[in-house]
Design a protein that fits this description.
This protein is α/β, with parallel strands linked by helices and 257 residues long. 36% of the residues lie in helices and 25% in strands. The chain has a domain at 7-91 and 162-255: Rossmann fold. Strand 4 and strand 5 (68-70) form a beta hairpin. It binds adenosine-5'-triphosphate and magnesium ion (MG). The site of magnesium ion has 2 residues, from helix 1.
Length: 257
């Protein structure tokens, strides 16, 4: 029998006033798998992940984690439920050290409030190494790291602080090709742990093909296609991406009349 999904999203609707940003989205997310979420601008990708991350409350629909219904009133609720979201801005301060960024707001201190820098440096180095980046000096400023390494830092931090569902919002979009590869490798290393479910948001068809186990295509807040790597042939992915773009174009044209 197939494993039940780690997280199930059922018929999620999100309205902003009269505007429906999500019109009944369902998807399953499994541990040890990468679920690629694709769709053009305005498809509702960010709205969906904000709803899964406790930023927005859904208008309708239900989220389940390990079969139990959950409700997030705040991002903290979602974090506590094991949702770790890495937004495009990464919430990283380039002027601060790798370690200070890793522990930002969750520092380890002794009873007198003094930070245990050595201990935090060690954890940061170890956790980064686990997903393939050797930071010999974690007291170095993040500004010295590449864009790909910064993504890895944000991912390692989310996992260390308990993420079981890792949501990555366009992690490769702002990077050069070599850096993009680095991030894809990081994501594959997280996948290989087997205990973390990954939602990978992307515009990039090639990246989605390289790493995706499952796919959901959004257009104008609706799922226009979904499937597993095996059930979707390469051409289907291209067609669905194009279909999403076409629907959005037509809608825009019609709205101008
Ligand atoms: N807070 C909000 N209030 C009103 N409308 C919103 C709000 N947030 C998003 N929308 C609208 O919902 C739709 C989906 O937006 P969303 O940002 O989720 O798309 P996206 O798929 O992430 O696009 P992109 O690829 O450009 O990031 C858009 O038409 C957007 O204008
Ligand atoms: Mg977006």
């Amino acid at each position: 029998m197939a494993k039940p999904p780690y997280m199930r999203v059922e018929n999620l609707v999100k309205r902003f006033g009269p505007f429906t940003a999500l019109g009944g989205v369902s998807l399953d997310v499994h541990a040890g798998e990468i679920h690629a979420l694709l769709g053009d601008n305005g498809a509702g990708k960010s709205t969906l992940i904000k709803t899964l991350s406790g930023v927005h409350e859904p208008t309708e629909g239900q989220i389940y984690i390990e079969g139990a219904p959950v409700e997030f009133k705040s991002p903290r609720d979602a974090t506590n439920a094991g949702i770790g979201t890495v937004y495009q801005d990464l919430a990283i301060n380039p002027l601060m050290s790798v370690t200070r960024n890793f522990f930002m707001g969750r520092e380890i201190a002794n009873a007198f409030g003094t930070l245990r820098m050595k201990e935090m440096d060690g954890i940061t180095r170890d956790e980064m190494l686990k997903i393939g980046i050797d930071i010999s000096d974690p007291s170095q400023a993040v500004g010295t790291m590449s864009g790909g390494q910064r993504q890895t830092l944000a991912i390692a931090r989310a996992i260390y602080f308990g993420a079981k569902i890792l949501i990555l919002d366009e992690p490769t979009s702002a990077l050069g090709q070599k850096q993009q590869m680095e991030v894809l490798k990081t994501v594959m290393r997280v996948r290989s742990r087997g205990d973390i479910a990954i939602i990978f948001i992307t515009h990039n068809e090639i990246h989605s093909k390289l790493v995706g186990d499952r796919y959901t295509f959004l257009a104008l807040g609706k799922v226009i296609g979904s499937g597993t790597r095996n059930s979707l042939a390469g051409e289907d992915i291209r067609r669905l991406m194009a279909g999403g773009a076409e629907i959005a174009d037509l809608e825009k044209e019609l709205s101008e009349i």
